[in-house]
Design goal:
globular; alpha/beta; three-stranded parallel β-sheet; five-stranded mixed β-sheet; 230 residues
């Protein structure tokens, strides 16, 4: 087992790793235990009592964080020529169709979100095996397959994120940066958690939200009292 660094020891000394804190307290503590020289991301890890293998227990949704993610989101819009001006004016970083599909087939995936119109889904489906594992495949359920390209681009740029439970029953999502105030982190965390609670499967028996942990990149995780968010 590797030895703890000086910063790691200092971080662990600021809180009780075995304790659970109210969400507001945890959002303050997470800033205090961050020692990275870069502006670390703040992440929530939510363990749900669902079985992701069952279709009726798959939890997936979208949420617009009040204060954004703090990250510049690179957006690619795949569309026909008649929608290109709309996409560019809305702030899309890349706009086109066949040339970008060819680039993606060649290994290029240097974007965070891909939005497309329904009419080009047949072409986009051909690169689904590349986009799917990277979480980039457009999906009507997340608002990334739409005719309202301008609104979709603006929402993503404003802090709209999509999330889904992984195969172990955990949702991982970024809710800001270490440079955010604790109040901004709290607001974003509340928005995400309330959205997850609303998505509770009707067929689920037992405890839905089992645990919540907040941390930053390379910082220790702080356990949140689930009762303080329900």
């Amino acid at each position: 087992m590797s030895k703890l660094t000086k910063n790691q020891k200092a971080a662990l000394a600021k809180f009780d790793a075995a304790a659970e804190y109210k969400l507001a307290e945890a959002c303050e503590l997470v800033k205090e235990v961050t020692y990275t020289k870069f502006d670390a991301s703040v992440e929530l890890h939510v363990k749900l009592g669902v079985d992701p293998r069952k279709a009726n227990q798959m939890v997936r949704g979208v949420v617009t964080l009040p204060h954004g993610t703090g990250k510049e989101t690179r957006v690619l819009v795949l569309c026909t020529p008649d929608k290109e001006v709309e996409a560019k004016e809305a702030g899309a970083d890349y706009v086109g169709l066949d040339e970008f599909i060819d680039k993606i087939k060649g290994g290029w995936t240097d974007v965070d979100v891909i939005i497309c119109t329904p009419s080009v889904m047949a072409k986009v489906g051909a690169i689904g095996r590349i986009l799917g594992p990277r979480g980039l495949m457009p999906n009507p359920k997340t608002g990334t397959v739409t005719m309202d390209i301008a609104n979709a681009v603006k929402e993503v740029k404003a802090g709209k994120i999509d999330f889904k439970v992984d195969k172990t029953g955990i949702i991982h999502a970024a809710v800001g940066k270490a440079s955010f105030t604790s109040e901004q982190i709290l607001d974003n965390s509340k928005e995400l958690l309330s959205t997850i609670l609303k998505l509770k499967p009707q067929t689920l028996k037992g405890t839905y939200m089992q645990s919540v942990t907040i941390c930053t990149t390379m910082s220790p995780g702080i356990h949140v009292d689930v009762k303080s968010v329900e």
